[in-house]
Amino acid sequence: MRDLFMDEFAVSLLVQELGLIIYQFTQQNLPACKPVLSPVWVVQIVYRYDVECVPALYRSNKLAYIKDNSIPKNCSKSLKIRWLPLELKICFQLVFMRDAHGFLANSKLMKAPIYIYYQLDNYYQNHRRYVKSRSDRQLLHGLKHHDLSSCAPEDFNHGLPVVPCGLIAWSLFNDTYSFFRGIDEMKVNRKNIAWKSDRDHKFGKQVYPFNFQNGTLSGGAHLDPKIPLSDQEDLIVWMRTSALPTFRKLYGRIEEDLDADDIITVKLLNNYNTYSFTGSKKLVLSTSSWLGGHNNFLGMACISVGVSFIFVAFVFMLIHVKNPRPYGDTTNLSWNWKPMSG
Amino acid sequence: MGEEEFLEAQTSVSSDRDALVDAAADKIERDLILLGATAVEDKLQKGVPECIDKLANAGIKVWVITGDKMETAINIGYACSLLREDMQQIVITLDSPEINDLEKKGDKEAVAKASSASITNQIKEGKHQLSSSEGSSVSFGLIIDGKSLSFALSENLENSFLDLAINCASVICCRSTPKQKALVTRLVKKCTGRTTLAIGDGANDVGMLQEADIGVGISGVEGMQAAMSSDFAIAQFRFLERLLLVHGHWCYRRIALMICYFFYKNIAFGFTLFWFETHASFSGQPAYNDWYMSFYNVFFTSLPVIALGVFDQDVSARLCLKYPMLYLEGVHDILFSWPRILGWMLNGILSSMIIFFFTTSSVIHQAFRQDGQVLDFEVLGVMIYTCVVWTVNCQMAISINYFTWIQHFFIWGSIAFWYAFLVMYGAISPIISTTAYQVLVEACALSPFYWLATLLIVVSTLLPYFMYRAFQTEFNPMIHDIIQRRRLESSEEEEASVELFFQHKEKIASVKKLREQETLLSK
């Protein structure tokens, strides 16, 4: 009896569903996908802070400022998200991919997720000696792996091995940023910023930092020895060496939307020493689209290559019209040639 | 009585033997009734005159060096159209009465002196004849016999002899010994610096075959000695035409193109490394993973070149034979001149520049994927390398004129193999694959930017060469371009039907012949 009832119930559900579909069909209300060709736009804010954040007292000797641990490195700047087409300001730059006068579908300017990057200039992370200075085996196996020759000189400290060893880890970036909208701190998601394959397969889950940054010269950030390497996402992101001397690395994401005319206060710690080699540091906030970040090169290149194709074709046509060469011109065939000499 | 005298004359060992034999025979052959006459024709092989004609059209000079008598050699010359009715003949021979008298006397020194003087004079006369008829379309044929040749090849005379011989349309050396055959070949090779080819079928040709740059032996009636000591062995003389005009032409083009292409593809690859170094403070950091670089010339770009070098044909065999002046491309070394080689190298440098700078400019800072990830060393390496592999293989596809399934398989297969390799290599533990670990699967494949950028960059890189080719074939075509165009334009059905007609005719003729033979046999 019960089975029969269940069957009846199932059948009646099916019938209802079918009836619903037919109803939608006849009422012209089928669920549909409605594509709209709208331009995708990316908003990007680039803010160079390494000069600004040095107090006026130390402007002439930034190197001394950065090396002195006793000077507080806090710096607080305000960024206003303004809808300013193509206008450059001294403190911050707004670069737009598309300039929409007037009507916007919604008034949110920067849609979540907003990616936070730090950009370093003139920093050669692709130098051969730098790239070599790491030990992949040690990153996976920790103290069990003993051959640290590739990491010299950052391999041993006070006779003990350094985990993670090498120059790349030693020079870990250590500026921090926190964002406030008004009084509320905006939550910055610092998880999942590294590649998954790195987290899972290149950095050991049982490997903990040991004897790290213990020497006389501190190159960058310190690592929490209680967190395994596979969870130290900053380290993982930093250790994936960049390709070019100017690069960005992902710091985190803001999962909220930012509206136009919002004022964001950035509280940053200006720790990292880029002053000894005329590098510069920039903070970048950017949204992304299906194509990635702000990038007009691809579009411009496509257009210019296409235009040059058209131009060449046009020239070709002109020359052809002016100097037509009959197809299958027979003057160069052997029986029409003059006899060769010699 | 007549028989005794005749025998004596035959067995006499004096220089007058010929005259004695003639006199004795004369005494016997009196009051005879002529019954008939027989003649023996030593026929030339089938197709020889046409072959020599074609070779002459292809800009190849043909000399005949034979051991036959002068009359036979001249007849052969006429038979294979080396000598024509309208040609003037320059004959250099020591068969004059003065020399013969001196020989009878036996004074060797005097004979040599007189012979040398006579030869010098004759050569001078011949040259005079040549220079006086310069400008008019009269062509000359030089005929020289073995004895004279031995003097003409002496040190003081060889240059003027060669001078005379080069300016004649054809040269026939008769009564030559095997050593002289080799000496003449060496003289021509050394003094003109041209490539020489010797073809012969007997053991007496071996010296000549070995001396020439290319020796072709005809295997068959006179044994296998010639074939065994040659570079190429063919069965009949007329196959030489196909050997030279078809295979020689194809080989020249293939090798020239292959070498230029090798330079191009390695320069295109190597210079991207160099441009990367400008961005890596010249520290020596390679832009790619080591194994990418090792396999570049092994897997990703090697097979298409082999397909080019072994299979490529610019025009079909039938057209090569029809238009023998295609062969002149090789004679004048058009396809391997310095401008062409440097042009390919420049193309390589330009390609590398476009690839590298487009790639880096397009991805320089910002994220290249929806999830906000930025470019790093591994991804840039893969992007540039992908563009290089695509460009180099598509360049091959534009350059070759002959696509069989092999070429398609090699070219597109090499590109596909690059992606397959990335997947396979990236799946190995990161200890071994270091910077390639899952780079395609995780980072690049899901980024539409990567694919779009590859497309844009490959197209832009190929544009200069493509433009050059389009303009060159349209406004300054080379011989094979014209022939290809003509083949395309002319009604192909027409040509095919004409061919069919001739094939049909041949078939009918051969069937008829067979029938006649059968009826003869049955009788």
UniProtKB/TrEMBL annotation, chain A:
Q: What is this protein called?
A: ALA-interacting subunit
Q: Which residues cross the membrane?
A: 297-319
Record's superkingdom? Eukaryota
Give the species this sequence originates from. Answer: Sesamum angustifolium
**PANTHER family per UniProt:** ALA-INTERACTING SUBUNIT 2-RELATED (PTHR10926:SF29), CELL CYCLE CONTROL PROTEIN 50 (PTHR10926)
Q: What is its main location?
A: membrane
Could you list this entry's UniProt keywords, alphabetically sorted: Membrane, Transmembrane, Transmembrane helix
What's this protein's family per the entry? Belongs to the CDC50/LEM3 family.
Localisation per UniProt entry: Membrane
UniProtKB/TrEMBL annotation, chain B:
Residue span(s) of domain P-type ATPase C-terminal? 227-477
**Membrane topology summary:** Multi-pass membrane protein
**Binding positions for ATP?**
T66, G67, D68, R175, K181, N204, D205
Q: Which Gene3D superfamilies match?
A: HAD superfamily/HAD-like
Task: Quickly give the catalysed reaction.
Answer: ATP + H2O + phospholipidSide 1 = ADP + phosphate + phospholipidSide 2
For this protein, the Enzyme Commission number is: 7.6.2.1
InterPro entries cross-referenced by the UniProt entry? ATPase_P-typ_TM_dom_sf (IPR023298), HAD-like_sf (IPR036412), HAD_sf (IPR023214), P-type_ATPase_IV (IPR006539), P_typ_ATPase (IPR001757), P_typ_ATPase_c (IPR032630)
Q: What cellular-component terms does GO give this entry?
A: plasma membrane
Presence of the UniProt keyword ATP-binding in the record: yes
Lipid metabolism as a keyword of this entry, yes or no, is: no
Cofactor entry: Mg(2+)
Q: Which GO terms describe its biological process?
A: phospholipid translocation
Q: Which residues bind Mg(2+)?
A: D201, D205
Record GO terms (molecular function): ATP binding; ATP hydrolysis activity; ATPase-coupled intramembrane lipid transporter activity; magnesium ion binding
Q: Which residues cross the membrane?
A: 255-276, 291-311, 341-359, 379-402, 409-428, 448-468
First-listed, main subcellular location of the protein, grouped into a coarse class? membrane
Alphabetical keyword list: ATP-binding, Magnesium, Membrane, Metal-binding, Nucleotide-binding, Translocase, Transmembrane, Transmembrane helix
Q: Subcellular location, in the record's words?
A: Membrane
Query: Which PANTHER family does the UniProt record give?
Result: PHOSPHOLIPID-TRANSPORTING ATPASE 8-RELATED, PROBABLE PHOSPHOLIPID-TRANSPORTING ATPASE
Task: Return the NCBIfam families for the record.
Answer: ATPase-Plipid (TIGR01652), ATPase_P-type (TIGR01494)
The similarity comment for this entry is: Belongs to the cation transport ATPase (P-type) (TC 3.A.3) family. Type IV subfamily.
Please state what the protein is called: Phospholipid-transporting ATPase
Species of origin reads Sesamum angustifolium
Q: Tell me the classification of the organism that encodes this protein.
A: Eukaryota, Viridiplantae, Streptophyta, Embryophyta, Tracheophyta
